[in-house]
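Appendix B. Raw example, untouched.
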Amino acid sequence: MIRCEPIQRHALSLSPASWDFAQAERKAIDAHWQRLVAANARLWNGEVLICTAAEVENGVLAARFTTTDFASFIAWRDWGWPDREARNCFGVPAVVSRDGELLMGVMAQSTLNAGRAYPPGGSLEPKDVRPDGSIDLHGSMAEEVGEETGLDLADARAGEYLAIFDGQRLAIVRRFDVDHSLADLKQAFAAHRARQAEPELDAIFGVRSRSQIDSRMPGYAQEIVRQYYSE
């Protein structure tokens, strides 16, 4: 069941604690990862942040994270989220074009989410943690959308936040309106993708109606469409 809450701000912080699931299942996780790499040698086991606690109170989302490896995160996901206290929490820059199209990206065939469609974005990582332990969500959003599409959010008009709870996923969504048409964005994306050795996206497209929701979109992405468009 999906729960969507408007929020005024967020307070995300890193804890020094380790993730119990990753420690307890280390051998099984490593074996699972080796099987994935055998099927796709492009996979890379870097560090990511996993959310261990999150709540919304008085319009503020407070969430605590710890550092883990991508292999542990993927095993947890593939095994049906066995640690029900943990969440995959990530920022979603919901880019809306001048002509009212919500930008969606189609994940490349080389990725673990091949063919899935959702607003460009990515996992929170240790590099997003500030010296004081707080997490720079806006910086993560800007970097991820830039890497995937070539779009610079510096001139975008930042709008409201939504916290979308989709099972063990927690998407922190912020709307960004840009002064570019969808055609402009597609042209810029094509040029950006051509310069990349291993692009994360195969394509981008626009959505401006609930009728365009399809099975490629995870629940939180479908909910963004429902929140932004009445028909």
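End of appendix B.
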